[in-house]
Design brief:
By secondary structure, the protein is α+β, with helices and mostly antiparallel strands. The chain contains 15 helices and 17 strands. The mean pLDDT is 91.
Length: 421
């Protein structure tokens, strides 16, 4: 008896996505806005492989991410390799490798895909695309203000209003001082930071208990700080500078600590104000000491990462993603064998002028051809048959508004150009 082969699943790997044309349209819109916004601020694009030596993340990325959330494997050369869970260590490595050749300050951005092995849930997947913007070489608050201003600019470029999001800012310097007041050793300092970063996801009694376990009798200083009545000096200066730039939706938030161990100064998060999605959308901060891992002198740096998943949910909830339309400008319907050559020539001319043209190569009837174009969200159709060849008159149909325009062969391009102006 022949054993039947097991049928393959049609589903993608858990926690990742397939991008059909409509999904790719939305992703491209999001990344195009990200890219254009970053470049308006003078940031230039870089990239790198998604494979990195595991040791790159072991020294400064949080233990939870390294031990529980990375895709790590041993390659054929017996080296431990990790699919990048974030981009900051990579860009720090690249800057360290050529720091003597580079001209500072650097304004760099990238939009890589990121991998983390975590439980898929709303706003979190195992793979996503993430804008990373980093400014190297400026230690003053002007750099922090610029990077937060850029984050605000991107949100506004998506069409978000001030009341749609809030920029929450805190100070790792202030938290470090707080740890000293609570007599927490430098080795356990990051434990306090991570506990504070989780406070909004914890029950008050649970946070109180874990805080007391960590600080003993010195928990009161932390509790007072968490009340937010006294704004750290560096945060106050940044809030004032942002207000001077017209950014009024930034606030001091003592519960913001960020989970990565490499942050050294200002940290911030941009959060959705919608009560039904009251969550962090993205964030970042200052990381001045990361280059020391490569036996290099410190270079001041500040940056942020913005993932496509949470931003897409934010935009969809406010109808801020444009309606899908095909990247194909025109579908040419062919009505007879004699018209094939004419259709090929017209398609060739239009393509040479920059238009994206799909040409029917099936035996489908004209109605089915038009239906195909409409289903694919192609905005225009042009039908070519014996009558069109004889009369030299062609009819362009706009499938969006149902309008028809009669034109000569030479005028087809002008009609298409006029529709996009």
């Amino acid at each position: 008896m022949v054993k039947m082969a097991k049928k393959l699943s049609k589903e993608p790997y858990k926690g990742v996505r397939d991008f059909y044309p409509e999904d790719m349209f939305a992703l491209n819109y999001i990344t195009d806005v990200m890219r254009e916004s970053a470049e308006r601020f003078g940031y230039v694009e870089y990239s790198a492989s998604l494979l990195e030596p595991t040791e790159l993340y072991e020294s400064k990325t949080s233990e939870e991410i390294v031990n529980e959330q990375t895709y790590t494997f041993t390659d054929r050369g017996n080296r431990s390799v990790t699919l990048r869970p974030e981009m900051t260590p990579t860009v720090a490595r690249m800057v360290a490798a050529r720091r003597r050749e580079l001209s500072f300050p650097l304004r760099w951005y990238s939009i890589p895909n990121i991998f983390r092995y975590e439980r898929p849930q709303k706003g979190r997947l195992r793979e996503h695309w993430q804008l990373n913007c980093d400014l190297f070489g400026v230690s003053t608050i002007e750099a922090d203000v610029e990077i937060i201003s850029l984050a605000n600019e991107i949100m506004k470029s998506f069409g978000a209003k001030d009341e749609d999001f809030v920029i929450k800012i805190n100070s790792r310097n202030a938290l470090a001082d707080l740890a000293k007041k609570a007599n927490i050793s430098s080795e356990k300092q990051n434990e306090l930071f991570r506990l504070i970063d989780r406070v909004e996801k914890m029950k008050p009694e649970e946070f109180k208990q874990e805080l007391e376990n960590l600080t003993g009798k010195n928990a009161e200083a932390v509790k007072r700080y968490m009340e937010g009545e006294e704004v750290p000096e560096d945060v106050a200066s940044i809030l004032q500078a942002l207000a001077g730039r017209g950014i009024k939706n930034a606030i001091f938030t003592p519960s913001i600590a960020r989970g990565f161990d490499y942050y050294t100064g200002i940290v911030f998060e941009v959060s959705d104000t919608n009560p039904e999605n009251n969550r962090s959308l993205f964030g970042g901060g200052r990381y001045d000491n990361l280059l020391e891992n490569f036996d290099e002198e410190s270079i001041p740096a500040v940056g942020f990462g913005m993932g496509d998943v949470t931003i897409k949910e934010f935009l969809e909830s406010r109808n801020l993603i444009p309606t899908y339309i095909s990247s194909t400008d025109l579908y040419i319907c062919v009505l007879s064998d004699e018209a094939k050559q004419e259709a090929q020539e017209i398609a060739g001319v239009l393509r040479s002028e920059g238009f994206n043209v799909a040409l029917n190569i099936t035996e489908k009837k004209v109605g089915e051809q038009i239906k195909k174009a409409s289903k694919d969200k192609i905005p225009f159709t042009l039908c070519i048959g014996d009558d069109e060849i004889k009369s030299r008159k062609f009819t362009l149909k706009n499938l969006i508004n149902e309008e028809e325009t009669q034109t000569s062969k030479e005028g087809i391009a002008d009609v298409l150009k006029g529709s996009s102006s």
